[in-house]
# Entry
Amino acid sequence: MGKDLIQKSVKDSLFTGIIALALFGPIVGLRTVAKNEVLVVEPKWLVVLLIVIFCAVGRFFINIYTFKKEQRRGESSSLGKAIAHFLDEKGAQIAIGAIAFSIIFPFMPFADRYWMDIAIMMMTYIMLGWGLNIVIGLAGLLDLGYVAFYAVGAYSYALFAIHFGWSFWICLPIAGLFAGMFGILLGFPVLRLRGDYLAIVTLAFGEMIRILLLNWYELTKGPDGLTGIPRPSFFGLPFKRYPDEGVETFHTFFGLEYDPMQRIIFLYYLILILALITNAFTIKIRKLPVGRAWEALREDEIACKSLGVNPRNTKLTAFAVGAMFGGFAGSFFATRQAFISPESFTFIESAIIVAIVVLGGMGSQTGVVLSTIFLIGLIEVFRDFESYRMVAFGGAMVLIMIFRPRGILAKRKPTITMGKHG
Amino acid sequence: MSNTLLDVQNLTMKFGGLVAIDDLSFSAKKDQITSIIGPNGAGKTTVFNCLTGFYKATAGSMYLNKDNNKMDLKKFSDFKVAQKAGVARTFQNIRLFPQMSVLENMMVAQHNKLMVASGFSILGLINSRSFLQKEKEAVKISKYWLDIIGLTNRADDNAGDLPYGDQRKLEIVRAMCIDPHLLCLDEPAAGLNAKESAELNKLLKFIKNDKKTGILLIEHDMSVVMGISDHVVVLNYGKKIFEGTAKETKNSPEVIEAYLGTED
# Structure
């Protein structure tokens, strides 16, 4: 077995080397340089050699690892398993610890403006991930246009706040409602579609909404975007250094020095609360009949029909509820930025959210948090190496898919157990 | 006549030029097991798909006698047949929810009544006491059936992890959870060994006698068919070629011909 394994691996890595040579030879090895106003080819064979050796050796080690694993393919690696087991055992404590940490986070000594901004961004993605988890993780409907609902939420919040001057807490549910309605709107035409076809249509839907926002100039100001979206206030107390005449601000009311961080911290707690509401709602609804029907629909739609479960209503509620949370997150985004334009709602956003859900382990709430920290954190760490950011992002996804093919946390807990009831 | 549970008249199903069921008439009685048998491709499963709303029959009528109410099954499309008329079915290739636990499978089958009890999720979200009560009752019903097939101790395991024979039985009792008037079983004994077949017979007899639920059965396993059927309908090429008791069927020359061919 051992000798056979090495032989196989060597063969395979040699083959990899040949492919690498064929690919990188012309791309990297031959470079045109302008010399005395004449283009000449300057070979760089040393670099090519290094790349080829790197590929071949890397492949050799991957091979040794995966060939050994051949007989238990589909099972996860022991390290990943240990992590999953640990999270499973100590799930409740970790969750409480994580929530406690997020509550005291703004008062950490290192939590400056930069860290707070990252934390707010991560929290937004976590909330979006939790929202999309209802659609993809529970109901099994691959939705590649989730950003559309984020956009609908953001724009409906912005438009209501600008034109009617309503406060954040009135506009928030309206924005959620609008996004939910769009969820149903998307749901109807895709009721009969599954898998790849569903993914294509939802992707197109996401683009449609973006293009609509881009071209409906009278309403959305098109590519110029909407400016002057009201900032949220703390129960009517605005965060302003120089308030209008006769208006009390947050810092005067509490007798504090004015500090722009106060608003950031408030925004942080706002998104934290919204995200936790999303989480609590999902955990609860999963245990209700409708949540179980979502999961059953993901497992087998025909069996659902034979048991009298209405697949249309079940799917539409999943789309609507998921979209509603996207809308909530969108209105938070609008109030935080005070400026929105269709640029913020491109396909890559949908892709990142889907990646978060899938890599986290479909249906796993904790998994969403872990993969958000991992992916968004990675993007941030690589901020200085701009052009390598997406490479790192892609690499991270490949790694997770190799070591945890079903996501970081793939284990599913039953929604009801006999032990508790029997 | 009031004893008739299902009355099928002149049922015809065509797929383009292919006539899968040709002018089929039969009836099934309450608290009886009616078997539909026939060689491969005779149209047995198509009959089921018409009855349970998965196909729309080309012609003919199907009436279900539900508490002395004549219900036209043709009026219901797919999931409504189970929801409104109370016709449950199982599938030739088992269709459980493999990644969900055994108990969850049973709970999904009680979806419609739990959905109402949860106030379409609103009462459920606020933990209303009436919903929790109803949920407890649903678990009790699940436990009742799981006790019968001896799977209570595996209630929290994934349904997909059960042995094949247990999956078959689970699919049947899951169908019973919707409280059906008519239970349609598509080859429930396929792939079972002799011992498991015997257990299946016992389960079906229990459903028939104690639950007073009519059973319509498609089966290839003759030991099952002959052992428990009260009434047998034999199909060949979409046509009914014989109808009678199990004993009569066994000795019928037409049936023997359909299965074994003729002696020249």
User: Anything to note?
Assistant: Chain B has a mean pLDDT of 83. Residues 184 and 216 of chain B are 5 Å apart (CA to CA). Chain B touches chain A through 46 residues (CB under 8 Å). Residues 4-15+28-95+180-260 of chain B form a domain with the Rossmann fold fold (CATH 3.40.50.300).
